[in-house]
């Protein structure tokens, strides 16, 4: 599939991109090359390949879930305009 100059201009208009006229042919060529590469990749047989989330078989090291700070709710809520039962009260925005 070949991307034409008019296609580049239409895509640029839809994406609200400003492209100088002298760059249109270069963009058309680059986009055509990308589409050709994707078409080549679609022809590769991947039926025997197992899907994976990451190419390396590693596990993420997780830190221990321990409390590292003290509860400062009262201190932080001193600046709030409205507080009730330890919760911040905010104006209703949806009727």
Task: Kindly list the characteristics that best describe this protein.
single chain, 95 residues, mainly alpha, two-stranded antiparallel sheet, 2 strands, flat
**Average predicted local confidence, pLDDT:** 91
Oligomeric state as shown = single chain
By secondary-structure content and strand pairing, the structural class works out as: mainly alpha
Total strand segments: 2
- The largest beta-sheet arranges its strands as 1-2
Backbone shape? flat
Low-confidence stretches: none
Biggest sheet record:
2 strands, antiparallel
**In angstroms, what separates the terminal alpha carbons?**
52 Å
**Computed CA radius of gyration, to the nearest angstrom:** 28 Å
State the helicity in percent bands: 25-40%
* SSE ordering: HHHEE
Strand content: under 5%
Number of helices: 3
Question: Any overview of this molecule?
Answer:
The protein has 95 residues and is mainly alpha-helical. It has a domain at 5-42. It is 36% helix and 4% strand. It is built from 3 helices and 2 strands. It has helices at 5-14, 24-42, 73-77, and strands spanning 83-84, 87-88. Strands 1-2 form a two-stranded antiparallel ribbon. Helix 1 crosses helix 2.
């Amino acid at each position: 599939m070949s991307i034409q100059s008019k296609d580049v201009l239409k895509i640029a208009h839809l994406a609200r991109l400003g492209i100088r006229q002298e760059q249109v042919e270069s963009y058309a060529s680059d986009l055509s090359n990308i589409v050709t590469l994707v078409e080549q990749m679609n022809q590769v047989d991947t039926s025997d390949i197992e899907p994976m989330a990451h190419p390396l078989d590693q596990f993420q090291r997780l830190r221990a879930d321990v409390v590292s700070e003290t509860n400062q709710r009262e201190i932080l809520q001193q600046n709030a305009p409205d507080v009730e039962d330890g919760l911040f009260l905010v104006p209703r925005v949806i009727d």
